[in-house]
Amino acid sequence: MDPNLVQFKKGVLELCVLALLSQADSYGYDIASRLADAIDMGEGTIYPLMRRMQKDGMVTTYLVESASGPPRKYYRLTASGRDSLNAQKAAWTDFTRSVAAVLEQHQEKTP
Amino acid sequence: MNERQMFLRRLKAGLKGMPRSTVADIVADYDSHFEAGQAAGRSEAEVAFRLGDPTRLARELQAEAGLRRWEDERSMAAALGVIVGVLGLAALDLFIVLPLLIAAVASVFSFFVAGLAVCLSGSVMLPFALITNLPGFAGDRLQAGLLSLGLASGGASLIAFCILFTIGLINVLARYGRAHYRLIAPQPSV
């Protein structure tokens, strides 16, 4: 993959995780596999991110017994995580809208 | 040995040097990832492939831990942690920076030692210069005193310059290291 694209995707990973967790609490494998499918990322990248988000107080964890094997660690969005999601979402929407506008202008000029 | 054990063992080996509880947390996360992957009908080999190379993963985690510590506290130990962490990454695929980095660290270190020596000798000479004159010095006591004072402060400013340069170097290293993660996401700078 193009290295620029990798850096680009890493930048929005946190936003994607926040958005996923705002719909429902989830566990590491589930988040990783859903994001890996959606934005084509290595699955291992999710755990250091979750640890940091936990340290920053954006998510909390709790254990849920699973039918097979050891209990699963679920992540839940905190109030500050929700604030961060709203702020990042607004910034992302603004940014992509501006980029789209520039690209459109570019297209109009080049026939 | 199966894929899962092999992955976890290499990960754990790569994390050596980090606090034991941190290593245990990290390994537990990846262990349960295998568990959940199998529950979802994937083979261990497939899960391991999607996670990436455990040795590289461990180096990136180590580097990131060092960089974060440097951001929390500007200490000598934290600076060393950044250097070691980025060197660990560099040994994998950033061969070009190695000689540059070693040269920079060596020259800063020698300037630092020189500054320390000049500063120390100036400070030691100062009381002698003021009380008697310096042995074998042609000028008077005032000149000897000013000379010692000049040496001491010149040495001190050389040391200060070295420290500033080192802080700058570490910050550049931190940015460079982060730009070369492949398996983990860097902490976005706030």
UniProtKB/TrEMBL annotation, chain A:
Q: Which residues form the Transcription regulator PadR N-terminal domain?
A: 17-86
Organism of provenance: Gluconacetobacter tumulisoli
Output the SUPFAM superfamilies linked to this UniProt entry: Winged helix' DNA-binding domain (SSF46785)
- Pfam family name, one: PadR
The name of this protein is PadR family transcriptional regulator
InterPro entries recorded for this chain? Metal_resp_DNA-bind_regulator (IPR052509), Tscrpt_reg_PadR_N (IPR005149), WH-like_DNA-bd_sf (IPR036388), WH_DNA-bd_sf (IPR036390)
Automatic annotation (TrEMBL), chain B:
The record lists the membrane-crossing segments as: 77-102, 108-134, 146-174
Keywords noted in UniProt: Membrane, Transmembrane, Transmembrane helix
Does the keyword Membrane feature in the UniProt annotation? yes
**Family annotation (Pfam families):** HAAS (PF22564)
The protein depicted here goes by the name DUF1700 domain-containing protein
Classification from the root reads: Bacteria, Pseudomonadati, Pseudomonadota, Alphaproteobacteria, Acetobacterales
